[in-house]
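FORM 7B - TANDEM STRUCTURE REPORT

SECTION 1: FIRST PROTEIN
SEQUENCE AND TOKENS:
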Amino acid sequence: MTRLPETVYSSETLDRLKAIATEILSEAKRRGASAAEAGISTSSGLSVTVRMGDVETIEHTRDKGLGLTVYFGKKKGSASTTNFTKEAVNDTVRAACAIARHTSEDECAGLADAELMAKSYPDLDLLHPWPLAPEEAIEIALKAENAARAHDPRITNSEGADVSHHEGSYVYANSNGFLGGYASSRHGVSCAVIAKDDSGMQRDYWYSVARNAAALEAPAQVGEKAAKRAVERLGSRKLSTRTAPVIYTAETARGLLHHFVNAIRGSSLYREASFLLDHLGKRVFPEGFNIREEPHLKRALGSAPFDNEGVATRARDLVSDGVLQGYVLDSYSARKLGMQTTANAGGVHNLVVEPDELDFDALMNEMNTGLVITELMGMGINAVTGDYSRGACGFWVEGGKVHFPVEEITIAGNLRDMYAGIVRIANDVDVRGTIRTGSILIDHMTIAGD
């Protein structure tokens, strides 16, 4: 059996990266920089794809990168490299300094405030190595695809099954005295297949992802779910244009809330390019709707002890009882807005939408008649006005039961109205990303079809 050399992301690895970061900051100071910050990452992984019982790809990855930003007063310069030799690192510092000397001053430029740096932080249990040999990965992928192909005779083709594992280390340092790092892992199994009958062909997929391989769904279960979803879409038809209630399934609801995050992101706000401009302290969602940011959930995909500027992450209410409580800011956007960073340099950390106490079937029953959305296409989103229009597939529901599958329709509305029109949230929470939500029922949207 061929086995990859095991990469142990231990304190020794982090110490090596911290030593490089310390050298970079010293060199930047020697060259006259008044402040500097560096982020360094290394990673390794394996990805295997099989299709129709044959191995299509086996890919080993080893990546590393170093990014440096220096400041000469309010002048800023950045450079990066994938070469960690002393000569290459010094060249990177030299390039960043040369750029900074020729840029214009920006009063909002600079490191995050020193008092906001993470002084100590918990072990979030993010690293779970999976010493997976290619032969083992192939076997797992074949189990997923074989289960999908055996699920129903109408599964006639496959787009393949994939198994991957990834492990890496990240270190951030700045001249305010911060030096920290952590290691993490991410593993996954996925499968996509095609179903066919007299009505035509339909494709669907399923995947499982986790920090710990032991938490992944069984490969046969992944394959069976992919096949079941594809078969259920056979016989899809269009709808006539109408207005009706809509359910976003948990995996599509995450995208719906991603638009909300973009609208309250600092860069959108200071550019005045958001439909939620000046909405802090105002109602955006219905009463009883809550979103909390939980950066310290153990093993969660969005967990981090500090953000990309070394600022300590902390739990906070983003939306409470439907009212917007905070924005998503890094130091630069916070200064542009006259506010303080929310430790979101690099993104959000586990946004948790509080669900109601009903499952998906109960949510359909409450909707009674309407559309369940299982897939979205296109990106017809106007971030300034909130106008929303996307292609969709799913199922038409009558009397709380699925009536028939639907395709080639467009759903439209305005995000302000859609958020305000949220009726209930099911407890089928999808944890496969940085936004954790169940399926969401919206009181009405326009459905454009025939």
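SECTION 2: SECOND PROTEIN
SEQUENCE AND TOKENS:
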Amino acid sequence: MTPIPLIIDLEASGFGRGSYPIEVGVADENQKVMSRLIKPFDHWTHWDDGAYKVHGIARETLIESGVEPREVAIALNDRFVGKILYTDGWSFDSSWLGLLFEEAQVFQRFKLEALTKILSQNQLEIWDKTKKIIAKELNHTRHRASVDAKILQLTYIRTLELTSK
């Protein structure tokens, strides 16, 4: 049996220069999800209303309820040391994750890879359609890191099942 991949997703303050991570979600090998809101450092001030419309997380919520970045980085290391976490948005997520660890002054002890590295051509061909079906089955209405990670993991499992027959 193929192991279930660990899937990570990040939400951010925007999409480009000056943006920073505001939420991290991971679906683990047991299909359980963890999520942390990230309290921004004082110098993380960039805020994009377009990104806010996607994730719906208010900056005030991060300041009041977010976890200190160092604590988030340490928690991720403690849970996933030596493992590979996969993302469907490697270019963005690797940048935001790198920023989190760099600014928190914590060495990242797990690897981040593009999800496409473990998908077969057959899986890729049915990926988007399958992902939409799963999002609908889960009544996915909010674009949040933990929910997105779970959808990606379930899409991986379903596409693997469909292409292994």
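SECTION 3: OBSERVATIONS ON SECOND PROTEIN
The chain has one domain: 6-163.
The first strand starts at residue 6 and ends at 12.

SECTION 4: SIGNATURE
Preparer initials: ____
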